[in-house]
Specification:
By secondary structure, the chain is of the alpha+beta class. It contains 3 helices and 5 strands. The longest helix has 28 residues.
Length: about 140
């Protein structure tokens, strides 16, 4: 029983897909796509040289085009802050006197423990404060 060339290319594509899943290296996926393209050429009756050339061309083209785009996309910072990062820079209302020792504020609809950034500064109930950072479960305000 002889196996057709296109089947071997598909086995190769699956074989290249396994390290893609295990290592999350997108280059393996691009090589796998090249193997699928070579399988199509083999199924259409293309010779061995044409199959290898299509595999190489598709793989190199994908790596040359997609990899820089993916790298640029990965390097971008998220546009929207979430979690604790979203609370920095927001304003809050003092509920109980806030000083270096502590206090309470209302931040984003929730009551938070807070302390002042400057040890000399204190804020009375009703005042607006700016959240400088979040330290654990305590908002540092000024």
């Amino acid at each position: 029983m002889e196996i057709d060339a296109w089947v071997w290319w598909l086995i190769g594509a699956v074989g290249l897909g396994i390290p893609l899943v295990l290592t999350a290296m997108p280059e393996f996926g691009m090589l796998s796509a090249g193997a699928v393209a070579a399988a199509v050429v083999a199924a259409l009756g293309g010779g061995t040289v044409a199959q290898v050339l299509v595999f190489a061309a598709v793989s190199v083209a994908l790596i040359a085009v997609v990899r820089p785009i993916a790298t640029r996309h990965r390097a971008q910072r998220p546009q929207f802050a979430s979690g604790v990062d979203a609370l920095r820079g927001r304003q809050a209302v003092v509920l109980e006197r806030v000083d270096a020792g502590g206090g309470r504020i209302k931040l984003a609809g929730e009551v938070w423990s807070a302390r002042s950034l400057d040890a000399e500064q204190s804020f009375e109930a009703g005042q607006q404060v700016d959240v400088v950072e979040i330290d654990g479960a305590t908002a540092v305000v000024m």
